[in-house]
Structure formats: structure tokens, C-alpha cells
Design a protein that fits this description.
Length: 514
């Protein structure tokens, strides 16, 4: 069991919550008031379009973008009582077995819940399988199912919890018993279940009085949600730097988790709380493309639209004396596997992930690294599936994505490179300018061609590449004057020359940036 600390920075325009496990920043949660996430919210939505070819539909829930609903996420219109099954997740129907047109039609109103926030240019993903989370249990009003966390290993505890939940669950509904429930008393469990049942009754009552689209229930904000999900016997402290947020959190914990009130602390340090705990530096590190390993090796993260690629390099690590190349490579890969798992949690990278480990000749070493990656991923709350390491050292994996990655939340596309990740070299831009001058030379009236460019490009054209400029002057029979412009980016340039009166192709000034 790991010791954890929750550090809350709530004294600014955004709320940031850091989860520190064994002295290491494991997860970072950020919520901005005007960009508050929608996961967990319950809406009364209206079907806009049904897409038979995709077995899905677009649903208006009142947000900026229409939400996306798969056929497999549409609960049966009539629920019949069945013998509940045991597991940690309720069964879902396959999209292949369903016809979306028989389930939904345009204009239909239905109760839905957001399971994935809008990501990039995609709307939120929703489901009609509503689930309401409490401290110890999750209530599922549309599924006849009892699930028990696999992390509760005691048969006696599982029987006790199952019996208690089965006594209170309504016909046709179900509960998932969370890991923390193993520490809960019978009265605490009943109180939590009763609260969720009353919450659902309130949602259903509001549904009858409102027309779609409308928000019927908003999930807890970040501060309360993270505390609810992470405070427990292994959490030694929850430290908050804002008095109002601390008081609100204290009232919440006193009401629902009174045993942990003494874990709450109001931060009194003089420096900002994230500086005091070294968290700001770790956030900056999590935004870097390259992550250095303690051994001297490194990881390189390239996050694209479709997938994230992670490359493992030995870097400066040459291995210990007496070690073979295979042993050195294996040691680097083992360290990388643990760090990759930590970085995926911290960066909140989801979707398809390709890991390129350094090639290992021995199958036994590949298995060793694979097991290390598997073990490291067990600490991650997000579900992940990984394939075995191929002979070329590649691992394919998926990690459940429910919100934007840390990079996409904290960073914006680079204005200089246009989000390409690179800019053209001064030499390349120099030759582009000369080609543009040549292209338009027939339309010059004979005056000087004035070129404005980034200082590095201008220095190149007036220095090492002056001969190329002079050759162009001889070819077009018009002088070329190149000047540096401090405000320009490397790829930006401007060409101005007096045009022939017969020319109508271009204005007198030509400004280009490619």
C-alpha cells in the first residue's frame, strides 16, 4: 500500500489538484470555471440525427457541440428483472448486434450521461446507462447488476457487501461496490446507497418538468470529486491553500466521510503551495517532449491526432562495468517501462499508444520488460490493454481516455511552426524567396526588388548565399535589395516591386509565408 498526499491549489482562477504517491507526482487534475468538464453530468437530450452506417446518433444536450451516442450505449426501453451478475462492470451490448434505427429516431427525447468530455473537434460521448457515483458504491438505475471491485479479495467481505447491497437495490437496478467499501460499516454503506437513490428520484422528477435539451444533474466539482475518489486509509493528508475551498471541503468530508476530517489541512506556507511541494517543476517536465531517465537514458513522446508514439533511447547510459550490451539495454528498458506508466498517468495520455523499446535479442528479457510494464500499469485507474513486446521491441497499447491530455489542456499549437513541430531552415526560405522573385519577374517594371525577411534569412542572402542572389539579378535584370525585419518569423518574408502597368496578376507588394 502506498502513502499518498492530495495537494490542492485553489487560490487562483483555476483549481489544480495533485495526487502525490510515495513522494512522486502521479496525477494532476485541472478545472477552470469556464471550461468545467461535463463527465458525469446527466442531461435530457434530443436526438438530432441517426447514422445507420455508424450505428450511432448525434444528440443535442445543450452544449456547444452535439454529443455522440453509440447503439451499444442505448439501454433497452423496458427493463426486466433478472438475476444479477457479479463483476466490476455491468455487461454491455455489442454495436454489431443492434440496429440504431430501431432504438432511436430524430426528435426523440431521452435521458443521457456524459462518459467522455469533448476532445479536440469531437463532441462529448454519452450513454443512456446512467451511473451515479458515491463514496462506496455506484448506483446504476437502468441495469440489473451487482458488481464488486476485484481489489476486494476477501470472500467474507464480498459476501457481506453483496448481501447488504442486494437488500436495498430496487428491482431492475444495480450497484457497483467500490474498493473503498471494504473499510465501510453497514450503516455507512446504507447511508451512501440511500443518498444515491434519493438523488436519482430527484433527477427523474426534474425530467418530467423540463423539455430537452436541459442539464438535470451536474457532477461534483473537481475538488470534491477527487477527494471522494482518493481519500482513504492510504491518504495521509489533504492540503488546501484557500480558506473558502478548505471550509467547503471540510463540510463535505464531515457529511460523507467523517473518519477522515482530521486528514484535512489548511496550507500556511509563504510560497505558493505547488512551489513548496515541487509540483510546478514536475508539470513543466510533463510538458516536455523528452524525459530523462535516472540511468542516463531517455524517453521521447510524440503526441499526434491518431496515436502517441514513445521512443526509448539509451542516451548517455553505457551500462555498469562487466555488463553486456544486452544487459545494458534490458536495464534501460526496465527503467523506461516504469517511467512510461508514470508519465501516461501524469500526462493523461489516452487512445492508441505505440512504445518502441530498444531491441532485445533474448525472449526472456522481452518477457521481463513486458511484466514490468504490466505491473507498473496496475497503479493506473484508467483501463489499459497492452500487447506483448515484438521481436522489434514494439508494444501496442490502449489507455482509456475520458478527458483532454495535460498537453492539450495546458498548451496551444505553436504559432511559429503552425503546429507542425518544426520550421523551415533559413537556407530553405532563402531559396523560396529566390523562386518567388523568379516567378514574378516578368511583371516587374525595372525598379529594385525589395525583400524583407527574418534577420537570419537576410544575413544568409547578403552573405554566404550572395552569389545565388547575384545570379538571380543577372537573370531578371532587376536589382534585389534584402533587408532583415526583426518582427518576422523565419518562414515569413515580403517582396515589393513596382509592377508593369500591363500586369494584373499581383499587387505591388507581395507578402508570403509558407
Amino acid at each position: 500500500m502506498s502513502d499518498s498526499v492530495i495537494v490542492v491549489n485553489a487560490d487562483g482562477p483555476e483549481t489544480r489538484v495533485a495526487l502525490i504517491e510515495n513522494g512522486i507526482l502521479s496525477e494532476l487534475f485541472i478545472e477552470r470555471a469556464r471550461e468545467r468538464g461535463t463527465v458525469g453530468n446527466v442531461y435530457k437530450g434530443k436526438v438530432l440525427r441517426v447514422l445507420p452506417g455508424m450505428q450511432a446518433a448525434f444528440v443535442d444536450i445543450g452544449e456547444e457541440k452535439a454529443a455522440f451516442l453509440y447503439a451499444g450505449d442505448v439501454a433497452a426501453q423496458t427493463t426486466t428483472e433478472a438475476e444479477p451478475t457479479e463483476g466490476d462492470a455491468p455487461p454491455r451490448r455489442s454495436n454489431r448486434d443492434l440496429d440504431i434505427t430501431s432504438l432511436l429516431h430524430p426528435g426523440q427525447e431521452l435521458l443521457v450521461q456524459v462518459v467522455k468530455d469533448p476532445i479536440s473537434n469531437k463532441g462529448a460521448r454519452i450513454t443512456t446507462y446512467i451511473s451515479l457515483s458515491g463514496r462506496n458504491v455506484v448506483f446504476m438505475p437502468t441495469v440489473s447488476h451487482i458488481g464488486i471491485s476485484r481489489r476486494i479479495s476477501s470472500d467474507h467481505a464480498r459476501r457481506r457487501l453483496r448481501r447488504l447491497v442486494d437488500q436495498m437495490r430496487p428491482a431492475g437496478a444495480g450497484f457497483i461496490i467500490r474498493t473503498v467499501a471494504r473499510h465501510a460499516t453497514d450503516s455507512q454503506l446504507r447511508a451512501g446507497m440511500d443518498y444515491l437513490l434519493r438523488l436519482w428520484a430527484n433527477i427523474k422528477a426534474n425530467e418530467r418538468f423540463h423539455r430537452a435539451p436541459v442539464l438535470l444533474y451536474r457532477d461534483l466539482d473537481l475538488l470534491l470529486r477527487v477527494t471522494r475518489d482518493h481519500i482513504g486509509p492510504e491518504c495521509t493528508r489533504v492540503i488546501v491553500d484557500d480558506r473558502a475551498a478548505f471550509d467547503r471541503l471540510r463540510r463535505f468530508v464531515e457529511a460523507f466521510m467523517p473518519d477522515y476530517v482530521d486528514r484535512l489541512e489548511l496550507y500556511s506556507g509563504r510560497e505558493p503551495i505547488f512551489d513548496g511541494y515541487g509540483i510546478e517543476a514536475e508539470i513543466d517536465r510533463a510538458l516536455q517532449r523528452k524525459v530523462d531517465l535516472k540511468s542516463g537514458g531517455s524517453l521521447v513522446f510524440d503526441q499526434g491526432e491518431a496515436l502517441t508514439a514513445i521512443d526509448v533511447n539509451t542516451g548517455k547510459f553505457i551500462g555498469a562495468k562487466g555488463k553486456t550490451l544486452e544487459e545494458t539495454i534490458t536495464q534501460t528498458n526496465l527503467e523506461a517501462a516504469a517511467e512510461i506508466a508514470d508519465q501516461l498517468r501524469l500526462r493523461n495520455v489516452g487512445g492508441l499508444i505505440i512504445i518502441d523499446f530498444i531491441d532485445m535479442d533474448k525472449e526472456s528479457n522481452r518477457r521481463k520488460v513486458y511484466r514490468e510494464l504490466q505491473e507498473a500499469l496496475r497503479r493506473d485507474r484508467a483501463k489499459a490493454h497492452i500487447t506483448k513486446i515484438s521481436e522489434m521491441g514494439l508494444v501496442e497499447m490502449t489507455r482509456k481516455r475520458t478527458r483532454e491530455s495535460l498537453e492539450r489542456m495546458l498548451a496551444a499549437p505553436c504559432e511559429v511552426c503552425g503546429a507542425k513541430g518544426y520550421t523551415k531552415s533559413p537556407t530553405t526560405v532563402c531559396y523560396e524567396i529566390l523562386r518567388e522573385v523568379r516567378r514574378e519577374s516578368a511583371h516587374y517594371a525595372g525598379d529594385t526588388v525589395n525583400v524583407a525577411a527574418h534577420p537570419s534569412v537576410a544575413d544568409l542572402m547578403n552573405g554566404p548565399e550572395r552569389s545565388a542572389v547575384d545570379n538571380m539579378v543577372k537573370r531578371i535584370q532587376v536589382p534585389i535589395d534584402v533587408q532583415g525585419r526583426k518582427g518576422f518569423r523565419v518562414e515569413q518574408f515580403e517582396i515589393r516591386a513596382k509592377a508593369n502597368s500591363s500586369s494584373s496578376r499581383r499587387p505591388k507588394g507581395v507578402s508570403s509565408e509558407r
